[in-house]
Structure formats: structure tokens, C-alpha cells
Design goal:
It contains six helices and eight strands, in the order E-E-H-E-E-H-H-E-E-H-E-E-H-H. The radius of gyration is 17 Å and the shape is globular. By secondary structure, the protein is an alpha+beta fold.
Length: 164
């Protein structure tokens, strides 16, 4: 098993039947590496964007550290707006979803709703995690997302032609 090096790249996966989706090969490999060889995908709603985020089990330790750091920062700045319980449920409200050797997994309905999932998923690497977008929702984002939007459009077009 090689060491986990983060999530990078892009991929598109059309929706399957019965709420099944496929984690693309490059992301599947990285999730498995990040999950100590286990086929467990962690998936959650993004806290600001209408998409989902995915990652492997190794990110859990980083989330604990992030929560502690955010709380320490709020205390240091005298902010009374930080609520550890609210932030904890945002960070740890992910689902742990098993996937098979082909990357197939079943996405819970509430995540499909929160991520506004449609007829396919666009995966965009982001280092410690990856974004999982409905291509239409990604298309509504501002110019800061133009590279992902261009990649997504090409991958969706290729999938429609049968070349993905």
C-alpha cells in the first residue's frame, strides 16, 4: 500500500440505478490509501457550497485538530460566536460509506438532497478532500471555479458521447 498523497485530479461519473454511484479509479485509490486499506468513503455536505465533500478515514484526526484550533482561536480573539457543538456537527456529520472493488457505493437520500445531486457526479481534488458536484451547481459558481467548470463540461460532454 503506497502512502496517501492527497486528492487531485478530476473525474465524472454518471448516476447509476437505485441511488448507486461509482467512485472514479483515481479517487477510489486515494480514499482506500487514506482509509488504511479499507474501502470506506466519508461523504458530507459542504458547509458553504451546494455540493458534497469526500475523504478517507485519515482525515478524522485532522478534523479533531481543526475543531480544537478553531476553538482556541475563538477564545484568543474573545469571540463568543464560536459554538463547539455546532461546529463539531458540521465537521463530523459525514457518512461512512462502503464501496466495492469497482467503486460502487450507495449514497443516502439526505446527502443526494443536500448536494443537489442530479444525473451524475463531478469529482474535483482539493488536497485533504475532494469536492463532489452536480455539474449544474458547479456551473452556477463564480469565476474562481472556472478551471473546474471547464474540466467538468469536457468530462460531461465526453460521457454523453460514450467516451468517459
Amino acid at each position: 500500500m503506497s502512502a496517501f498523497g492527497g486528492y487531485s485530479g478530476q473525474a465524472f461519473s454518471p448516476a447509476g440505478d437505485k441511488g448507486r454511484f461509482v467512485l472514479p479509479p483515481a479517487f477510489r485509490k486515494a480514499v482506500k490509501e487514506s482509509s488504511d486499506g479499507n474501502r470506506i468513503l466519508c461523504l458530507a455536505a459542504h458547509d458553504r457550497f451546494d455540493c458534497l465533500v469526500g475523504f478517507g478515514l485519515s482525515r478524522i484526526a485532522k478534523l479533531h485538530a481543526q475543531l480544537d484550533n478553531e476553538e482556541e482561536r475563538a477564545i484568543r480573539l474573545g469571540s463568543h460566536e464560536f459554538d463547539r457543538e455546532v461546529r463539531a456537527q458540521q465537521l463530523f456529520g459525514f457518512e461512512q460509506l462502503p464501496f466495492d472493488d469497482s467503486g460502487r457505493f450507495v449514497m443516502p437520500e439526505h446527502l443526494r438532497d443536500l448536494g443537489k445531486v442530479g444525473e451524475g457526479l463531478y469529482f474535483q481534488g482539493a488536497g485533504d478532500f475532494f469536492f463532489v458536484w452536480n455539474p449544474e451547481e458547479l456551473g452556477r459558481m463564480d469565476a474562481g471555479w472556472k478551471s473546474a467548470q471547464a474540466s467538468c463540461a469536457k468530462l460531461v460532454a465526453a460521457a454523453k458521447k460514450g467516451g468517459a
